[in-house]
Amino acid sequence: MKVKVSRKAHFNAAHRLFKPEWTDEKNTAVFGKCSNPNFHGHNYELIVSVIGEIDQQTGFVMDMKILKELIYEHVERAFDHKNLNVEVQEFKNLNPTAENISVVIYNKLRSKIALHLDLEITLFETSRNFVTYTGK
Ligand code: NI
């Protein structure tokens, strides 16, 4: 029997989607307003889910206090009120799409969570656009 537990978090960050080897015209054609050279912000909503057996001692899948602290330390402190392209090392050479941000968050948290637990990242870039990554 497996149970999924989830914690919500939030960060504001600026980004620009572009490929430096493309012309401005091609970047605008592919990335639209998200390619604005002067950057723009999103209110990202994050759901981090952990899936696993219930620990018979605690009755928890995972201690949510620990999950809260991991998200704060590795995601909120790293990304909140940052320009992702300019200030966050992982995006120096990686387009900060919602897809890529989800993979970066997954990779940051995966090593901090016990391996018998599965991890799932859902990231809302807007209230209607969101992506999910499960490490596959
Ligand atoms: Ni954008």
Q: What's the SSE blueprint?
A:
Elements: E1 3-15, H1 24-31, E2 40-52, H2 64-79, E3 82-83, H3 84-87, H4 98-110, E4 118-124, E5 130-133
Parallel strand pairs: 1-3
Antiparallel strand pairs: 1-2, 2-4, 4-5
Detailed description of the structure:
It is a single chain. With 136 residues, the protein is α+β, with helices and mostly antiparallel strands. 30% of the residues lie in helices and 29% in strands. The chain has one domain (2-133): Tetrahydropterin Synthase, Chain A. The chain has 4 helices and 5 strands; from the N terminus they run E-H-E-H-E-H-H-E-E. It has a 5-stranded mixed beta sheet. Strand 4 (118-124) and strand 5 form a beta hairpin. The protein starts with a strand and ends with a strand. The mean pLDDT is 97. Nickel (II) ion (NI) binds at residues 15, 34, 40, 42.
Tally of domains: 1
Report the end-to-end length measured between terminal Cα atoms. 21 Å
* CATH first level: Alpha Beta
CATH superfamily: 6-pyruvoyl tetrahydropterin synthase/QueD
Distinct ligands: nickel (II) ion
* Helical content (DSSP H or I, runs of 4+): 25-40%
The description of the largest β-sheet is: 5 strands, mixed
Rg result: 16 Å
Average pLDDT figure: 97
Task: Name the features.
136 residues; alpha+beta; Tetrahydropterin Synthase, Chain A; five-stranded mixed sheet; elongated; binds nickel (II) ion
Describe the structure concisely for a colleague:
With 136 residues, the chain is an alpha+beta fold.
